[in-house]
Amino acid sequence: MTSRLTRRQRRRVSQGIQYAVFVAALVVVGLLADWDRLQNQFAQKDLASELFPAIITTALRNTVVYTVSGFVFGLVLGLVIALMRLSSVAPYRWVAGVYIEIFRGLPALLIFIFVGVAVPLAFPGTEIPGGTYGKVALGLGLVAAAYMAETIRAGIQAVPKGQMEAARSLGFSHARAMVSVIIPQAFRIVIPPLTNELVLLFKDSSLVLFLGVTLEERELTKFGRDLASQTANSTPILVAGLCYLLVTVPLSFVVRRLEARADKAR
């Protein structure tokens, strides 16, 4: 009589097969890859050491500044759009809905081209305050605001309706209750997805190169590409990628911790 495997045994067999496939794939890649050629092209220690400290003091610093400025602008605009989306005034809801659909549907690259080319053509003689930094904040912020608006709106709607009723019973106006009671609670709810949006903006800051930046305004991707072209070697690109991970990995860890804490609180 053929013995049947239990559910736990079947699961262990399945996991064993998956691990075996994974190890086999690693072995195949390891045997087929030309590691000497990869090292010569991507891991030149002398070239990598020459990138410092400029890659930190200029490229990484600019990347962080671009990201933070875009995030702040997007957060403020996203809050306004979210409140318009929840407004009882129909035109406000329509404008907010159209904005969200357009800027969520367009690639971020097209938004940067619009900011760098279309805005100066549409408003001759005017310049965006802050130069390149202002353009980047506007480009990143316009993209981020569309996503943040929906996140914030969901957070506001997640606050129990009794909170608004309690605030109104204490004599708060609707606007004051939103500012003092509802919005702070909503932001505590949406901190994890907003932090995740910060990670995405940090990577999207690489699109700055399409605005035409100076040497002192270069971010990590532009810095790595320029040095790779000058040296005919891809080591600067690899080092720039590691600098991205230096920021995004800790931020991703923070997002997971915040999400776990929020799940535990619920």
TrEMBL record:
Main localization (coarse): membrane
Keyword Hydrolase: no
Keyword terms of this UniProt record: Amino-acid transport, Cell membrane, Membrane, Transmembrane, Transmembrane helix, Transport
Domain ABC transmembrane type-1: 60-255
Membrane topology, record value: Multi-pass membrane protein
SUPFAM superfamilies named among the record's database cross-references: MetI-like (SSF161098)
Signal peptide location: none
Keyword Glycosyltransferase listed: no
Coiled coil: none
Pfam families, A to Z: BPD_transp_1 (PF00528)
Ranges that cross the membrane: 16-33, 64-84, 105-124, 237-256
InterPro entries: AA_ABC_transptr_permease_3TM (IPR010065), ArtM/GltK/GlnP/TcyL/YhdX-like (IPR043429), MetI-like (IPR000515), MetI-like_sf (IPR035906)
Localization terms from the record: Cell membrane
NCBIfam families on file: HEQRo_perm_3TM (TIGR01726)
Family label: Belongs to the binding-protein-dependent transport system permease family. HisMQ subfamily.
Record's protein name: Amino acid ABC transporter permease
